[in-house]
Amino acid sequence: MKEKTRVEDVDRSIYDIKNKDLDAYKFQSGLDQDVVLQLSYEKNDPKWMRSFRLRCLEMFNEMNMPQWGPAIDGLDMDNIVTYVRPKDNKMVADWDEVPDEIKSTFERLGIPQAEREALAGVGAQYDSELVYHNLKEEVKQQGVIYSDLESALHGEYADMIRDHFMKLVPPNDHKFAALHGAVWSGGSFVYVPPGVKVEIPLQSYFRLNAPGAGQFEHTLIIVDEGADLHFIEGCSAPKYNIANLHAGCVELFVGKNAKMRYSTIENWSKNMYNLNTKKARVEEGGSVEWISGSFGSHVSYLYPTSVLAGRGASSEFTGVTFSGGGQDLDTGCKAIHLAPDTTSFVNTRSISKDGGKNTFRSSIVVMPEAKNSKAAVSCESLMLDSISRSDTIPAMDIRTKDADIGHEAKIGKISDDAVFYLMSRGLSEEEAKALIVSGFADNVSKELPLEYAVEMNNLIRLEMIGSIG
Q1: How far is Cα 389 from Cα 70, in angstroms, rounded to an integer?
Q2: pLDDT for 1-22, tens place per residue?
Q3: Which of 149, 352, 370, 372 would be a feasible disulfide site paired with 356, CB 3.0-4.6 Å?
Q4: Are 215 and 84 within 8 A, CB to CB?
């Protein structure tokens, strides 16, 4: 088969696969106590989880909508279906046993191939339920636990989950954290024992197929003392003419001298409200790295947070956000320094075109006891036309004089000279601009495994020719 070499050859249609009549069972739209109790019954929740869901619903009803980001007036919970279960629902560990239509979707997205070639284990969620979960035997032999969260909630790790579930992201954090606590479904649980280094990544992939539905998966990862893990999260959805909602939650517990890398490529459709919450707690000498590529979605609120709780803990955030026409993406990160000798570094790129809006929002907090801490924030924005917008809103709350804090921001446009030079070497204007933008985002793509770097660069090229729906 001829190798693809031109921008026009990249096919966006794989992300717009729509399977019909797969939702053999789904709730009525809207949210009330009956919906939450019905969901708790479907999940066979332990008593404490059912009570927790109901408390979260009360909080959701009492809390106001967020006021700090883009307007989300088009999101009406009365029109959102909180639970959709695909037909023949049964989570399996053998790919051949996944229902044919669902399997075809994931195969076209490249998930089985990625598992065979580059991953230690994969969880695949379709709408509200996981349909596939598997971990390679050699990783199991290391004592690593990687399962769907709901199975783990009823197994030998039930107490561990209860001790950690929504402790980093409490439901009173904001309105959509409370919503998540009330209607969460699906997601993954990972536990890496002390000293274990998982040499190749684990991945969860979340596919939202149903129109007018929400996806509320919960990812809980515990990396114990001296352990090392790279986890990859992929997300996509087809385009519909009604609003969809993603309000997942990620909680990472990074132990003493442990390392955690969390990579995400979010490729939601442009009718999606992406109101996701991610937070890590890092103990003494531990480190967390966030690698983030944000594409798609109509509106995003996304600010991965690192709580540096132990001496010498560190965090690094590397991200790229691409917004086109009709998109308003409010993204960034937070770092909270609680202990001495902690460090945080932020390096982001944002790209906007066709009237798209990007807002980078960062928060660095250094508490009085976090002496000798260091933080550096660098954000660069590239606007491809005169109707797009890019804003930077950095917040620095420094409560000790014994700290080294820096921030820099740059905003610019594509150089006409660079475009002319590349066109003189045989590229079209479109290809030249796509190549420049890919280079601008290289700080993220070079941190990803090859297969995902290729996907991210393809998404950039597709955005450059305006073909993403």
Answers
A1: 13
A2: 333 333 233 344 555 555 555 5
A3: 352
A4: no
